[in-house]
Design a protein that fits this description.
- The complex is a heterotrimer of chains A (94), B (480) and C (484).
- Chain A has 4 helices and 2 strands; from the N terminus they run ααααββ.
- Chain A has 94 residues and is mainly α.
- Chain A has a domain of 35 residues.
- In chain A, β1 and β2 form a beta hairpin.
- Chain C has 15 helices and 11 strands.
- At the A-C interface, α1, α2 and α3 of A face α9, α10, α11 and α12 of C.
- β2 of chain A pairs antiparallel with β9 of chain B.
Chain lengths: 94, 480, 484
């Protein structure tokens, strides 16, 4: 648990730009929280297949029938920038 | 030491459901952007995914038809990465419990059977479409435009084991997979529409090496030709590097259609950390025995089964394979015609060669609705029995394409019936020989080619009626 | 006479008896808001214009005897992470300060069909992450009992407005206690239903396997009415459940377990005494009180602070300035996303996203997130086993009475500890209710929490109503510095 957290890498994965000040504070805060997890991490828990769902709700697959939900205008209503009916963003490289 | 390539194919199949994978938005093609949307496929706050039952039926059908193990207690996972055409900045996919595993697909390569092993078949959703605006090159764009109509469309990803050995095998595999999804009626299977998209993973190694070489992913191959060329190029590139002891980097490369090379894609280094975890918005997907049985019991005829039927009718493996991948009408027509004529090869040649060729010239993709197997069989039989020449047969076929006719009646009324009577033909041969003594001399002196000229004269004399091969035979006899 | 502290059924009777009109009630409630919001700041927006028309329509229905049901004409406040079409859903974040929702959450559609009027949207900790509403990007909400103290969180606004009388009831959301804890701090009733009984479609997701929408009300009967009008399978929510037959706990002569681990360190003396006082009341009603042990509850905070941030790190990825939200420029789209998220999210949200991202990242999954899921499954087993021996479980709702502003904001672990008693019910997906039962030595509200097995919601509510009838607690505080 005492692995230093590579906060820059984590921020990159989360697409969050942090100031140096934020990086330092967060690294400390997160380390403190992670240390708190030590007791849990050390617990010997059985290796069974667990469901993420607390109650094992069964999955009801939906019938394949198309419905109309949002109009074109509604879909674009909150667009920060749009052009010719498309959302516009700065260029995205691959 | 010989260097051998290893190829693995990852193919995305767009399913032809009525609605999207995790919402009920329409999937109908439209050229109006951002028309078929809802909070879920647009990634609005508060939206939730609900999986499409038909899509699951389709993927189960595909998994069963490729002899996969079906995961009866599976789940969906979130694959996390940021990209503007991904509305939630995670894609709902499947990680360690895909619907199908450990399957196989029989293919035909160079006229022989081969098997491609399939590692997994899993369900996921498509992303939106990005259009880069600017000078056309991806790295000098000024902005990117986004259309989310495609976001959320069901995709099945089929991953083979890295055991494909050549570009031809890879191409045959894609052809087989495409035919399969068409025959199962789960996808339109049109490459040019993006219904089927594929990436290739290629590595090379010395023949007796236990381990595979560094694998390189190749993207952006939009046709089977590109696939073949790209694989060939990449194998050659990696082989050169291996021979020069250069290190091959694990990366993703882009196939450049114009330059016909693969090139490095700038941003990807190493493997991304997708932080897969099971999607808490979707409970476990339990596929009951009833569900699976119902699909098993309604399985359409598979391409491999069709191929076997064609082989049993007398075609070679290669021919059986090719007709199975042609438009449906061809295989059906072939079956009916060969049943009547009992001559599989001739029936095959007439349909896939002459008929298809003539239709193509007219810009047609299928024969007219009045054309029957009986009529075709009649033409074939007339030609086979030498009643008419092959050329006449082609002519009658051409007429049949234009209008409903009776081949034999047409042959008679258009005086196409050939003269086969040897006595009659002998007379004409003798006449021609008499009139062409100088030519005979030249033939005697070695100009064998002029035999054809004389045959032509006989045909002319008969006003095209004479059977050319009989005429030639008799001519040669006479000359001696 | 003021009607804004009456129960829904009392109001409905007045409507039907034509002693009160919906428009009159709405005016009272709106005036109460006008008098108190400058101090309390519970509402972020008020929907006055729309409601004047809606109230007039409700008036006509009651006049003609065509009223829709018991909720017709009742003004209810909605937490601002629940979508109402045509209005802003900000989640108290700069990221969404300009976002107008194009669709209704399923619960909103259901309440609209009942004739409910929405007073407006209430304040919360940004994206529902917090226990004090201090994390709101638009300023905190004050506790009506003492405006120098927090109302709790994350549904602080929803709890405060019910407590103050500027709404008859409200909706909140509960992920780790975000309905129950603020309800406790504000001296009102807060109910978290069984996971999956109320649709989450339209609730901005924080932690998908933990979130539930629930009512905050002046009394238990109101919670029961609201719960039953909202519950039900929703085809738009794959985690919502169809009603199933479950063995119900006893209403009379029940066995109630006091959770030992939630009566130990970290719980104030006042809170412990309150539980013991209520235990005695329950005994006087003929129930049996025992002590039970649920050892894994001690791990609650760790398990929760791994699962919730992990899920939220992915749930909040969609906020990138591409399709909506306050975009901040960038040279490339990735830069634009980075900048948008840097400016749009507050520090607590950033922290949880990073914590979650870390817990899921390559190499750490098994030790952290994977381990937390296993522990959660074991905790569920513990609860299930325990419910074979008892009908209900009881504990304090919060470790202490409401704390002062700034008291815990510098100590993250202490702040997280506020949820110690409430988190277990979310982790195991079972229903839980908080009922105010007394006052602390500071004169501030204290509550007890009652829990029951999954799918026993209405029985739990009925049982709690019976307890409520023997508890003496007066809900309306005098708002310091304001009108009472």
């Amino acid at each position: 648990m005492s692995d230093k957290i590579d906060i820059k890498n984590v921020a990159k994965l989360a697409a969050l730009k942090l100031t140096t000040e934020e990086e330092n504070k967060l690294e400390k805060d997160l380390s403190m929280i992670i240390d708190h997890f030590a007791a849990l991490s050390e617990m010997n828990l059985p290796d069974e297949k667990i469901s993420i769902h607390p109650l094992g709700t069964p999955l009801d697959l939906a019938d394949d029938e198309a419905i109309i939900f949002l109009s074109h205008e509604e879909a674009l209503s909150n667009a920060p920038e749009s052009s010719d009916g498309q959302f516009v963003v700065p260029p995205s490289l691959d | 030491m010989k260097i051998v390539p290893t190829i693995g194919m990852e193919t995305h199949v767009e399913l032809k459901t009525n609605s999207k994978m995790f919402c009920r938005c329409n999937v109908v093609e439209t050229d109006k952007p951002n028309e078929n949307l809802c909070p879920t496929c647009l990634g609005l706050p508060g939206s939730l995914p609900v999986p499409n039952k038909r899509a699951i039926e389709f993927i189960t059908l595909l998994a069963l038809s490729t002899k996969c193990q079906i995961t009866t207690d599976g789940m969906f996972h979130r694959k996390n990465y940021f990209y503007p055409d991904l509305p939630k900045n995670y894609q709902i996919s499947q990680f360690d419990l895909p619907v199908g595993t450990e399957g196989s697909l029989e293919i035909v390569v160079n006229g022989e059977f081969s098997t491609v092993e399939i590692e997994r078949v899993h369900m996921e959703e498509d992303t939106g479409k990005s259009t880069h605006i600017g000078s056309g090159r991806i790295d000098s764009a000024t902005s990117t435009h986004l259309d989310f109509n495609r976001a959320g469309i069901p995709l099945v990803e089929v991953v083979t084991k890295p055991l494909i050995k050549s570009s031809k095998e890879a191409v045959s595999y894609i052809e087989e997979l495409r035919q399969l999804v068409i025959d199962l009626d789960i996808s339109e299977g049109k490459l040019e529409k993006g219904n089927l998209r594929f990436d290739a993973n290629i590595s090379v190694a010395y023949e007796n090496d236990d381990e595979l070489g560094t694998k390189v992913e190749i993207k952006n191959m939009n046709s089977l030709r590109s696939l073949e060329k790209a694989i060939e190029y990449e194998i050659s590139r990696q082989t050169k590097m291996l021979n020069n002891n250069e290190t091959i980097i694990q990366e993703t490369r882009h196939w450049d259609e114009k330059k016909e090379v693969t090139s490095s894609m700038r941003s990807k280094e190493g493997s991304a950390d997708y932080r897969y975890f099971s999607d808490p918005d979707i409970p476990n997907m339990i596929l009951s025995e009833d569900f699976i049985d119902k699909i098993k019991n309604n399985m359409p005829v598979l391409p491999s089964e069709k191929r076997n039927t064609f082989i049993n009718s007398g075609l070679s493996i290669e021919d059986a394979n090719s007709i199975g991948k042609s438009p449906k009408w061809m295989g059906e027509l072939y079956k009916s015609v060969s049943d009547i004529t009992n001559d599989s090869k001739t029936s095959f040649n007439w349909i896939t060669g002459e008929l298809q060729g003539q239709l193509r010239k007219l810009g047609e993709t299928s024969p007219p609705e009045w054309m029957t197997a009986e009529q075709l069989a009649e033409i074939i039989s007339l030609v086979k029995s030498d009643k008419i020449s092959f050329t006449s047969g082609k002519e009658i076929l051409g007429e049949l394409i234009e209008e409903k006719i009776n081949p034999e009646e047409y042959a008679i009324s258009n005086k196409l019936i050939q003269e086969n009577d040897t006595e009659e033909i002998s007379k004409m041969v003798k006449e021609i020989i008499k009139e062409n003594s100088e030519v005979l001399e030249r033939i005697a002196n070695g100009e064998q080619k002029l035999i054809g000229f004389l045959v032509g004269q006989v045909i002319k004399l008969s006003k095209g009626k004479v059977n050319p091969s009989v005429a030639k035979e008799l001519l040669l006899k006479e000359i001696k | 006479m003021n009607h804004y502290k009456l129960s829904i059924s009392e109001i409905n009777k007045l409507f039907k008896d034509k002693k009160l009109k919906p428009s009159e009630l709405y005016s009272e409630v709106f005036e109460r808001a006008a008098n108190t919001e400058s101090i309390i700041h519970g509402h972020l927006t008020l929907f006055q214009d729309e409601n004047i028309k809606k109230a007039a329509d409700a008036d006509k229905r009651y006049e003609n005897g065509t009223e829709l049901g018991i909720l017709d004409g009742i003004p209810i406040a909605i937490k601002d992470n629940i979508n109402i079409a045509g209005y802003a859903t900000t989640c108290s974040s700069q990221m969404l300060s300009n976002y107008i929702s194009p669709y209704d959450a399923t619960v909103i559609t259901k309440l609209k069909d009942e004739g409910v009027m929405f007073t407006g949207k209430t304040n919360l900790d940004e994206f529902a992450m917090g226990s004090s509403t201090e994390n709101s990007a638009f300023g905190p909400t004050k506790n009506p009992w003492d405006p120098s103290r927090v109302p709790g969180g994350s549904s602080g606004g929803s709890a405060a407005v019910v407590s103050a009388g500027s709404a008859i009831a409200s909706l909140g959301s509960d992920t780790g206690g975000s309905i129950r804890q603020p309800a406790s701090f504000c001296g009102v009733v807060g109910f978290k239903p069984t996971y999956g009984t109320v649709s989450r479609f339209g609730l901005v997701a924080f932690a998908s396997s933990l979130d539930q929408i629930g009512p905050i009300t002046n009394n238990v009967e109101d919670s029961k009415i609201l719960f039953n009008s909202m519950k039900g399978f929703d085809p738009f929510d794959a985690t919502s459940r169809k009603e199933s037959k479950t063995k119900q706990p006893k209403l009379n002569n029940a066995k109630i377990g006091i959770i030992k681990e939630l009566m130990e360190d970290g719980i104030s003396e006042d809170a412990k005494l309150e539980v013991q006082k209520v235990a005695k009341l329950l005994e006087s009603q003929g129930h049996e009180i025992v002590e039970v042990s649920l050892p894994l509850t001690k791990m609650s905070i760790s398990i929760y602070y791994l699962i919730a941030p992990a899920e939220c790190s992915a749930n909040l990825s969609r906020f990138d300035g591409v399709r909506y939200g306050n975009r901040v420029a960038g040279n490339t789209s990735y830069e634009m996303m980075e900048n948008t998220r840097a400016e749009g999210f507050g520090p607590e949200v950033k922290k949880r996203i990073l914590l979650g991202t870390y817990a899921l990242s390559a190499g750490y999954y098994d030790a952290f997130y994977g381990q937390a899921l296993k522990a959660r499954a074991m905790m569920k087993k513990e609860f299930t086993e325990t419910y074979k021996e008892v009908d209900y479980l009881i504990s304090p709702t919060t470790p202490s009475d409401p704390f002062k502003f700034g008291e815990k904001s510098d100590n993250q672990l202490e702040m997280y500890m506020s949820d110690l008693c409430t988190i277990p019910a979310n982790l195991v997906g079972m229903p839980a209710i908080s009922i105010p039962t007394g006052l602390s030595s500071n004169g501030l509200p204290l509550s007890v929490q009652i829990m029951s097995p999954a799918n026993t919601d209405n029985t739990l509510l009925e049982f709690s109503q019976k307890l409520e009838s023997v508890v003496s607690f007066t809900s309306l505080p005098e708002i310091k510095g304001g009108v009472s």
